[in-house]
Amino acid sequence: MARGPARWLFPGKPRINPLSPRQLNRAFSAAKHLASFKKPRSTLHSLRHSFATRPGKPTDNAYIEAFNSRLRQECLNASWFLSMDDARTRINSWKEDYNETRPHSSLEKLTPSEFAAQLNETRKVT
Fold this sequence. Notes:
By secondary structure, this protein is mostly helical.
């Protein structure tokens, strides 16, 4: 007695019924609880990201860990913040330097603003 299509992915194993919306919602809520996720409007993507990036695990997401390392070394460890306003000012100036004036190797040694301008020029031509 054949159940389902002849080319079932796992022959010899019983077919599994898909999750109902209620079951999916309960699994999503349980995963949010396990991840200690506090955002009111969480999505499956944001939840997956919270499980994928564990602190101190650089193999999980190398780009985020590299950025965090640069921020820590060049800004946070290099400065004594006198107040929250001082911290905001120094971190914002570092962020502007990082995003606007510093060349990035991933952008062919261009600054992000130069790369964006070059990209806009190539889009206009096409």
